[in-house]
């Protein structure tokens, strides 16, 4: 099901260790959001949302880690990672370095490798929906799909429409999650 009624979806949390598969199995590291103390934008169908209420799927958006002023485009998974059969929902954004960044193609599958951000605050806005979670047959098909998600997120993140610009401004700000745009 395509879930767009709650977009953009703004989240503030802390980066925590995940299962380690993004870096090791896939070569595509993620900055996993903590379930504890997550702040979720209170709007539309997510007015009383909890972590478990977040709509599953693959999304694109923008992210900032810690006090670093750099805004990253992101491809983000919300869900249970059907290939691995997780029982717990996760939010796992992959940060996409700018095309000129030295970090751009450092990982084992030639995606962005930025280092570890554990215990750093993270501001994430999900602007658009890319696709549902899918149970891929084989690691190669999963990696190919994620790489396509990254390409799509990067292309869509280049948009200059007002809503995209507003979300970049929010990520760059230190506004509380409940502050109006």
UniProtKB/TrEMBL annotation:
* The protein's enzyme class: transferase
For the keyword Nucleotide-binding, the answer is yes
Entry-linked PANTHER family = RIBOFLAVIN KINASE, RIBOFLAVIN KINASE/FMN ADENYLYLTRANSFERASE
What is the designated name of this protein? riboflavin kinase
Task: Cite the Riboflavin kinase domain residue spans from the record.
Answer: 6-158
Keyword annotations of the record: ATP-binding, Flavoprotein, FMN, Kinase, Nucleotide-binding, Transferase
User: Is Flavoprotein included in the keywords of this UniProt record?
Assistant: yes
SMART domains in the record: Flavokinase (SM00904)
State which Enzyme Commission number(s) the record gives: 2.7.1.26
